[in-house]
Amino acid sequence: MASQIPYIDLHTHRNYPVSELEVRSIKNVALNHSELVTEVDCSVGLHPWYINGNTEHDLGLMANALERKQVLAIGECGIDKTIEIPLTDQQSIFDKQVCLAQKYQKPLIIHCVRAFEEIVSSLKRLDFKEPVIFHGYRKNWILGQQLIRKGYYLSIGQHCLNGSQDELLQHISLCHLFLETDTNTMIEINALYCYVAQVRSIAVEELKCIIYQNYKKVFNK
C-alpha cells in the first residue's frame, strides 16, 4: 500500500496540479509583482526585488488576502543587500510585513541575502512570536545552528544536491528542516528528499514523516 504521507514543497513557484495528492505545496505569491492568490495553498509577500511606489496599496492587498484560508504564511519577504533598492526602504517594508504576520498569527517565509543580522534584529525588536522559515538557505552549518537555536526553521533547495551542504544536513535537527523547489522546474521535490535521506542514512519515508510533522506544527494543519 502506498504511503499516505505527502512530500512537502515548502516554497515553490510552480503550479502543481490541483489533483496532486503526493505533494503538499505552498506557492509563492508576490503581491508587488502582479501575482494573484488562487485556490491553492500559498504564501503572500512583498518581495524586496519588486519594491515600488505602491507599497501601501500592496499591503492592503496583503491584509485582504490574509483573510483567505488558503493563505498559510507571509512571504517571501525580507532583505537583500545585493540589490539597488535602499536598505532603509527594504527594512521598513519588511518590518510592516512582520507586524502583519504577528497580527494575523501567520508564519514568515524569509528571503535573506547577506542580511541575517538585520532580519534577526527586526524579529527580536518587534517581538515576533510566530514560526520563521529562512527559505533557500545555502549558508554554512555554523550560521544555521545559530538560527535554529533561536527556534527558526531552514528550508533547503536544489543547490544541496552538489554536496555543498552535507555538513549542515548531517547535523541539523530534522524537526527544523523543510525542503523546497523554489523556481527550479527541472527538479522534483522527491529528489531532494532522496538526497537528504541518503546523507542522513535514514529511509525516505522517515524523512517524509518528520517534515510532514513540521508542516502540521508550523501551519496548524
Task: Name the descriptors.
single chain, alpha/beta, TIM Barrel, 8-stranded parallel beta sheet, 7 helices, globular
Output the helix-strand order: EEEHEHEHEHEHEHH
CATH architecture: Alpha-Beta Barrel
Distance between the termini: 24 Å
Q: Which residues sit in consecutive blocks of at least 5 with pLDDT less than 50?
A: none
**Tally of extended strands?**
8
For the biggest β-sheet, the strand order reads 1-2-3-4-5-6-7-8
Shape: globular
Mean pLDDT: 96
- Class, according to the CATH hierarchy? Alpha Beta
- By CATH's scheme, which homologous superfamily applies? Metal-dependent hydrolases
CATH topology: TIM Barrel
Structural class: alpha/beta
Rg (C-alpha, Å): 17 Å
Q: Supply the number of helical segments.
A: 7
